[in-house]
Specification:
Distance between the termini: 84 Å
Strand content: over 45%
Shape: flat
Radius of gyration: 29 Å
Length: 534
């Protein structure tokens, strides 16, 4: 009788867990679409009744695009804090042109694209730190070497099963391990949940120890931990049953110290020296050169350098447009594919400003010194494309001005996608990027790609070389044969050199190695350029 009761209980638990995923076996379709799941246009779905893992049908996906962000399959489920769930889905690869990737609140494992015409199981163990709703599903990824324009993948039996245990346990739900809190945080709530124990019974309790402090006994969630800027906090949570420790969990978090930097170049220098763990207050007022709805991204630059703002939480609530100034930027940094990104922690202030005049550079300069120009708006004069036809999104092209480099269509929203690739020599305005050490550039709009080489005024005709320099001098040339007033500033804004030159040669032998800002003025035309002394 006990065995029958246990079996019945197990079946009840399993049925509830499997029931979290609606239409998990892809058995019900309405009007050609399978019920309870959302899909995107890049992957069409049909009901399949021959190739099935279990039941009477599966879902046949035809992936029609290499744009992975347009192939998602999703639905939402509820999870509870402190519980762990086993996630499983079966995948059948009809070819190796694409592969499937499991999604459980985040992107997890891939299918094996070389395991053809057989069912394979993708699994993941999801430990929930909060009681909430999460997305589950799949995303399809093309395999460039094997992609022929489409790929067929079958999916069946997407299940989520709660792991059941009767052992007393405690789970820390907040903060997350290695979380970093913004400067100015004076208290952090430690939150936890317990399972399979009655804390109202004497001898059953939770104790918390923070670092070397005395242990706080019989605490309730949330438990406030006092904090200061720059502090690191190692927290131990113990669950006691009948006055004996039955489970222990640990978490560490920090409160960042605010680092004030004069400008973007100083921020970049600090990251190079100290890594990406800092939180910064930027004193300069950079100007917006491009904005995107994707991830609330903004390209900005001041007189010293540029950087990409990546703001997924939307912490910058103020609306900024191109040529607006941004004051009071505060936040941390991260690196994605080699590109340094600023991750704001608070809103910024809009300041009236003027559009950035792109600095004129050559491809040869970008190939050797692209890190100095990362995320800056620059102009490359007299450039041609190797390829012909029309622009496609997320595609590499080759541009030439005597040297050659990658032009990538990174912005799917750009108005030149689907437009003709220029076939004549053009002056290109581009944002500088890289992909894991390989420099590349991208344009914002069609106008950036089709500017006539004869339409630029004297402000853009200054040329400075060699730059970087270790020779003690730089050459400054223009289209006009007149004196040039040159002012050089340190990255802190201090004037370190002023000279009027008539022979196009500026002596910089008195300057220490570093990054400087040059203001060049000739006959009323003024521009600003970066100068690097090695």
């Amino acid at each position: 009788m006990k065995k029958i009761y246990f079996l019945l209980l197990t079946l009840l638990v399993s049925s509830v867990s499997f029931g979290q995923v609606a239409n998990s076996g892809f058995e019900t379709f309405t009007g050609g679409a399978f019920d309870s799941w959302s899909t995107e246009a890049g992957a069409t779905v049909e009901q399949e009744t021959t190739i099935v893992n279990s039941g009477t049908s599966s879902a046949k996906f035809t992936v029609n695009t290499p744009t992975q962000g347009d192939t998602d399959v999703r639905q939402t489920i509820n999870v509870e804090a402190g519980k762990t769930y086993d996630v499983s889905v079966f995948v059948y690869q009809a070819d190796n042109g694409a592969r499937a990737r499991l999604y459980v609140g985040n992107y997890e494992g891939y299918s094996d694209p070389d395991m053809l015409n057989a069912w394979q199981e993708l699994t993941f163990e999801y430990a929930s730190s909060a009681t909430e709703t999460i997305d589950i599903g799949l995303r399809f990824y093309d395999i460039a070497a094997n992609w022929t324009g489409s790929s067929v993948i079958y999916i069946d039996d997407y299940t989520v099963t709660e792991q059941v245990t009767t052992v007393p346990s405690v789970t820390i739900t907040a903060p997350g391990d290695n979380d970093s809190f913004a400067p100015g945080t004076t208290s952090v709530d430690l939150e936890f949940v317990t399972q399979n124990i009655d804390l109202s019974t004497a001898g059953n309790q939770v104790n918390v120890t923070v670092g070397t402090n005395a242990t706080a006994t019989n605490v309730a969630s949330p438990y406030a931990i006092a904090t200061v800027d720059g502090g690191t906090y190692d927290v131990t949570v113990e669950l006691l049953e009948n006055n004996a420790v039955v489970d222990t969990k640990m978490v560490s978090f920090t409160v960042s110290a605010l680092t004030t930097v004069a400008d973007i170049a100083a921020l970049r220098a600090d990251v190079t020296a100290n890594g990406t763990g800092g939180t910064y207050l930027l004193q300069s007022v950079p100007v917006v050169t491009y904005t995107r709805t994707s991830r609330n991204q903004k390209y900005i630059q001041d007189a010293s350098a540029g950087i990409l703002i990546d703001d997924v939480p939307g912490n910058i609530a103020t609306t900024f447009a191109e040529a607006d100034g941004m004051a009071g930027l505060t936040g941390g940094v991260s690196i994605f594919n080699g590109v340094l990104q600023f991750n704001p922690s608070a809103d910024a202030t809009l300041v009236a400003s003027t559009a950035v005049i792109p600095e004129v550079v050559t491809i040869a300069t970008l190939l050797t010194d692209y890190a100095d120009y990362q995320s800056e708006l620059v102009k490359i004069v007299g450039t041609t494309f190797t390829e012909t036809g029309t622009f496609a999104a997320s595609t590499d092209y080759t541009i030439n001005d005597g040297a050659s480099m990658v032009f990538r269509t990174n912005f799917s929203e750009a108005d030149y996608i689907g437009q003709a690739i220029p076939t004549t020599s053009e002056d290109l305005v581009v944002l500088v990027g890289e992909f894991n050490g390989t420099p590349q550039v991208t344009a914002r709009t069609l106008t950036d790609l089709t500017l006539s080489t004869t339409t630029f005024d004297a402000k853009t005709s200054f040329s400075v070389y060699p730059n970087p320099t270790n020779t003690g001098f730089v050459n400054i040339t223009t289209t006009a044969n007149e004196a040039i007033n040159v002012t050089v500033f340190s990255i802190l804004g201090k004037q370190v050199l002023f000279e009027t030159i008539n022979n196009n040669v500026l002596n910089v032998s008195t300057l220490n190695a570093g990054v400087y800002i040059m203001t060049l003025n000739q006959n009323g035309a003024t521009t600003t350029k970066k100068l690097v002394i090695k």
